[in-house]
Structure formats: structure tokens, C-alpha cells
Specification:
- With 254 residues, this protein is α/β, with parallel strands linked by helices.
- 30% of the residues lie in helices and 32% in strands.
- It has two domains: 191 residues, Vaccinia Virus protein VP39 (Rossmann fold, 3-Layer(aba) Sandwich), CATH 3.40.50; 52 residues, Nucleic acid-binding proteins (OB fold (Dihydrolipoamide Acetyltransferase, E2P)).
- The strands form two sheets. It has a seven-stranded mixed β-sheet, sandwiched between helices.
- Helix 3 runs parallel beside helix 4.
- The longest helix is centred in the middle third of the chain and has 22 residues.
Length: 254
């Protein structure tokens, strides 16, 4: 409580009528990375007590669904689900609310109950963020956006790589509203990929076409992959090194 009394975001949340100071983290993330736009359907995972739901509703003006193991006190214009985000039953309930097309944005500011053992707490944080990512991959529309809170530690880099494998653009960001002593950081994934290839995939291909820039162009499961440094008729082994929503880039490997 003493810490809260010295916290300007704590008092700002009270003055502005938000349920928690975390509301300003989402405002700052959105101002920097433009995650939530007007009209977006947003799903908030681990949403209790509802501070991010309030902000998401203000930013999108459209449907917002909050999901948590705990019941969330009613928020005007926000629908809520009591459920486990790893459960197929919960996923089904989310689709019932957002429609079969899925959500435009998935956000998650959840954190595990802290024990004080840093290695243990970091591992539990990563496990929770992986659950959020797994849920997002099921319910996001192609091209959708994702934000999740992570505690920094030795497993952070591997998790960041997982997000990179599923989104065209990935960033990490620490908003000013995060407490200075906190190890939390937010991972932002933009433009969810539904392509049949991922970074690091290896294929053997025949170069039968050239793109407008002179790079080789091949189709993998009807998805265009551009290959530098090849000629028509080459038979090469390639590794995917970058994936975009509608095409990918690859390099030749020996």
C-alpha cells in the first residue's frame, strides 16, 4: 500500500476510473505499436480484474471478450468467460462470442502468483505466456496482432523466437507505466502468419520462374517463396529465412 501511495499511475487510474494502473501500460503499448484499431475484435486472456478490457473497449469500440479463471466484475460493453485458456471448451466459447472468423487482437497481461524464487517464477511466467500464445494461434484471424507480458530471464529469448515464428513482425517493449523494479516486458507480435512455411524450414526445389526483381520464385503448397542468387533450371536446397503474410524469402544452402 505504501508503494501504491507513491505511484502516480495508481492515483491516475483512480482519477480516470480504471480498475488498475495496468490500463496505462496498454495505452502506451498501443500508442507505440498500434495494436488495437477502431472496430477490432479483442480477446483479453487472464483478464481479471479487467483493466485491459476497459482500455481495449475504449480503443476499439467493438466487441471485447475477457477470459479468466476468476469471475470478472461486469464492464459495460465487455463480455466475459470464466475458463481455462488451455481448454478446448474455453476456445469454443470464445468463438461463440467473436464469430468463426476469430479475433483481430489477442492481449494478455496475466502473471503467475509469485513465490519469491526467481527461477521458479520465471519458468511459470514462460509457461503462462506459451499458453497464451497457443490460445492466440487458435483464435486469431490471419494478420491479427498479439501482446503478452513476459518476465525476463534465461528462457525469454527462446519464447521470443517462438513468437517470431508465428508473426511477420515481433518487438519487445517496456512501457513507462511498468514499475522500475519490475522485470516484466511485453512481447508484441504483428500480422499473424498462416503460411505453410516457417523460418528455418528446409526444402529442395526446382527454379522454374523468376520474380520481377530477378530472384527465383517457387511455390510451396501454393505459397510463393523468393530465392536469391539462382538461375532458371537450378535444382537447389533452400532454407526459409523470413516469412511475410503473402510470401517468404529463402537462401540457398549446400
Amino acid at each position: 500500500m505504501a508503494r501504491d501511495r507513491r505511484d502516480k499511475y495508481y492515483w491516475k487510474a483512480k482519477e480516470d476510473g480504471f480498475r488498475s494502473r495496468a490500463a496505462y501500460k496498454l495505452f502506451q503499448i498501443n500508442n507505440k505499436h498500434h495494436i488495437i484499431n477502431e472496430g477490432d475484435i479483442v480477446v483479453d486472456l487472464g483478464a481479471a480484474p479487467g483493466g485491459w478490457c476497459e482500455v481495449a473497449k475504449e480503443l476499439s469500440g467493438a466487441r471485447v471478450v475477457g477470459v479468466d479463471l476468476r469471475r470478472i466484475s461486469p464492464i459495460e460493453g465487455v463480455e466475459t468467460i470464466v475458463g481455462d485458456i488451455t481448454s478446448d471448451r474455453t476456445i469454443s466459447k470464445i468463438f461463440d462470442m467473436v464469430g468463426e472468423a476469430g479475433a483481430d487482437v489477442v492481449i494478455c497481461d496475466a502473471a503467475p502468483n509469485l513465490s519469491g524464487n526467481w527461477s521458479y517464477d520465471h519458468a511459470r511466467s514462460i509457461d503462462l505466456t506459451r499458453s497464451a500464445l497457443g490460445c492466440a494461434k487458435k483464435i486469431l484471424k490471419p494478420g491479427g496482432h498479439f501482446v503478452v507480458k513476459v518476465f525476463q530471464g534465461d528462457m525469454f529469448k527462446d519464447f521470443l523466437e517462438e513468437v517470431k515464428d508465428n508473426f511477420s513482425y515481433t518487438h519487445s517493449y517496456s512501457p513507462k507505466a511498468s514499475r522500475s523494479q519490475s522485470a516484466e516486458i511485453y512481447v508484441i507480435g504483428k500480422k499473424f502468419l498462416t503460411a505453410p512455411v516457417r523460418r528455418g524450414d528446409v526444402f529442395e526445389v526446382d527454379i522454374t520462374e523468376l520474380g520481377s526483381s530477378g530472384d527465383g520464385a517457387v511455390l510451396i503448397d501454393e505459397f510463393v517463396v523468393f530465392v536469391k542468387g539462382v538461375q532458371l533450371g537450378d535444382h537447389v536446397k533452400i532454407r526459409i529465412n523470413d516469412v511475410k503474410p503473402n510470401f517468404a524469402f529463402a537462401e540457398v544452402i549446400n
